């Protein structure tokens, strides 16, 4: 079927739901470790507590991708039913996460939250490939990245913004501050509204042969067979992109899970106080704990705001690419390579920073790599797979995102950073080296249709 070219605003509308999805991911990525630390977690335990995120992605995305390929609803279409289900569940989870009374409850809510976000996210990736002709794929994924950048920056600053409105950063021992609770509630509200906006402003193409589609849909017991067969038939370009994704997402999982303990300690000199080191029955020591805890919470707000810079930077990078790709083609391979290596440099520079104001320069570089990660691999992939199986292949491709995160959570980060020393900041050095390796792996991409859309697929 010949697909018409869409205007900027049509592409914007179909991607707008990603604003809410990124509110969820940014709040999760920027502040879950803070919640874990507030509830008593040691920084060495945090990566394992984060294992919920990649495990749910490993399970949910291929299933949702497969199901959405085989779904057609007369009013909601193919992908939009999953947008709606994921948005409702995510909004509920975002409200309850910061109210967790214990560490195990917070870890459990992370499972629910990440699974819910994944239900919405995977179909959004597939929708770009569904709706756009191949000549607009890079443009579409870049617009999506632009919206993600806006969401990252605003959501990362939410606790700081809320605290500026008078909500307290102080809280009793083991209780998440009100500023964080209000920020997460706002995030849930934005998530639902932005996804509803896309649902109401975007239509989808029906299957070309609806009868054949319904007949195929009625076949039972094919899920496991289809998934395993298509993993075996994975295009070479997809496998090579998988290597790049492995090192890219190992780096960003390291940032999400350990940037807060690393930067509050190394840059702000305000690590999370360990309750066992204080005699809480002594008024003086209890007050000292409260002072240290408030300093940690305020430093965490600033770390979150600094992390928001990478969303702003990725937004600016995406905006630049949006203007360029609307009229011209780009070499996706070299754009991605340079972007990843700049991000790696940003992580490494954190080790040498003493002034918190200089963190923003590191996150500017990291944002360039993030903007590329959210667009270039998907643009390259969409030019290399069967359009009829786009949702399933996008879900399978997610394996290359979640497997490195699982390895990192199960001890990979602690082991590698431990080789460099005991300081939490060493994890950021590991993230930097991993991104540089990911950048160099772009030399593996040789398929011309992945590098630019103009030639035939491999």
TrEMBL record:
Q: Name one GO cellular component term.
A: membrane
Q: Which domain of life is it from?
A: Bacteria
Annotated compartments: Membrane
Q: Membrane topology for this entry?
A: Multi-pass membrane protein
Family annotation (InterPro entries): MFS, MFS_trans_sf
Molecular function GO labels: transmembrane transporter activity
Q: Which Pfam families match?
A: MFS_1 (PF07690)
Q: What is its main location?
A: membrane
- List keywords of the entry alphabetically: Membrane, Transmembrane, Transmembrane helix, Transport
Query: Membrane-spanning residues where?
Result: 12-36, 48-68, 80-97, 103-121, 141-162, 182-200, 241-259, 302-322, 334-352, 358-381, 393-413, 425-446
Q: What is this protein called?
A: SLC45 family MFS transporter
Native source organism of the sequence:
Seonamhaeicola algicola
Its ancestry begins with: Bacteria, Pseudomonadati, Bacteroidota, Flavobacteriia, Flavobacteriales
